[in-house]
Amino acid sequence: MDQMDLSQRVEQIERKLRESELRFRLLAENTTDVISRHTPQGHYLYTSPACKSLLGYTPDELIDKPIYRYLHHDDIAKVRKAFNRKLNQTNNKPVLYRVRRKDTEFRWFESNLRVIINEETRAISEVQLASRDVTDRVLDKKARLRGQQLARVYRLSSMEEMASGIAHEISQPLAAIVNYTRGCVRYLQNGVSNSDEIKDAMQKAVIQAERAGEIVQRLKNFFCKGQLIKTACKMNNVLRETITLMKNELIHARTKIELELDKEVPLIFIDKMQVQQVLLNLLQNAIESMQQSHTKEKRIFVQAKRCDQNKLEITLRDTGPGFSKDVMHKVFMPFFTTKAHGRGMGLAICRSIIEAHGGQFTIHPNHQNSSWIKFSLPIATE
């Protein structure tokens, strides 16, 4: 091969490399998945622009940073193992793990890994990842099932505690029915022939009977097992109705509720009964916490607001002691409780229900007399 042939050969190889690099760039920069290149130690060498929409970071913010910095603590070992095991294995399953977005929210990602081997040293020179957000799929399989199972256990175990409130709520329409029908009996016994008065009393009795039936149906749905049954709801109405359910208990505990609700809150698609269960449990926790700590001024503050185009946030604060940092890592563990007679299921259930709806559930521990619980729900899209 003469010098000209060699020069042409080199030029052809370089042209193919440039074309290959161009195809890679076009693919990486136009896909909705995150394409990234890493050192064997996990540091970013390159990441596609999709990281901005999926993770909140620009490519420049990630370059030279280790991927492990952004992973959930429980998933770091799994990803490290995947990076290390690729040298001797050719057929590997995708790796499932959680990544912390720039806004601190954790999302589930699934990555296919490809290892680039140095031909001379046979050592790993680079690891390439194709990653996609699979949070919705994971929540469907894990959070929803867990939420349904835990929720049923908790609902059944809570029946005794709720019996008093249920009896009070249903006794009101029943008492009204008795009074209206007794009034009709008296009219008839006294020979009153005014049919309009009797008709009016019976119509009022019918209204109260329908109200009692709605209460029974609501309680039946509340305690029954089943899939999420989502309907379009206004969160402000759900909040007010839930507080009405606890009116008797709030009066007995001398606790006041202050609402701060956006007037233009959009519709959300939720399983109303399950979301009410979350609210009932959180309100009950707040009442009991303030009673145990002997708080003088018992107040619960409830806020509902739209935090962005896709999310509605509900925040609850009270004048009680809140959660200390010491117990924060335990609060979602089933059967862990700080109550003398608690079952330790409530917060685990609340989080499961919210996650099953595609939302996030967060507890902020007491710091400088500021403590709150916040959960988000996705806004209904047209």
Protein described:
The protein has helices at 3-30, 50-55, 59-62, 76-85, 135-157, 159-189, 195-223, 235-245, 247-252, 272-292, 346-356; strands at residues 34-38, 44-47, 95-100, 106-117, 124-133, 231-234, 256-261, 267-270, 299-306, 311-318, 361-367, 370-378. The protein has 382 residues and is of the alpha+beta class. It has two domains: 30-133, Beta-Lactamase (2-Layer Sandwich); 141-378, Heat Shock Protein 90, CATH 3.30.565.10. The protein has a five-stranded antiparallel β-sheet with strand order 2-1-5-4-3, sandwiched between helices. A five-stranded mixed β-sheet has the order 7-9-10-12-11.
Helical percent range? 40-55%
The CATH architecture of the largest domain comes to: 2-Layer Sandwich
Number of helices: 11
Cα-to-Cα separation, first versus last residue: 68 Å
- Secondary-structure element series: HEEHHHEEEHHHEHHEEHEEHEE
Quaternary state of this entry equals single chain
Radius of gyration: 30 Å
Average predicted local confidence, pLDDT: 77
What's the β-strand tally?
Answer: 12
Strands in their spatial order, largest beta sheet: 2-1-5-4-3
The shape, in one word, is elongated
Sheet-strand content, in percent, reads 15-25%
CATH homologous superfamily title of the largest domain = Histidine kinase-like ATPase, C-terminal domain
- Identify the CATH class of the largest domain: Alpha Beta
**Main sheet record:** 5 strands, antiparallel
Structural class: alpha+beta
> Which blocks of ≥5 consecutive residues have pLDDT under 50?
339-345
Q: How many structural domains?
A: 2
Could you name the CATH topology of the largest domain? Answer: Heat Shock Protein 90
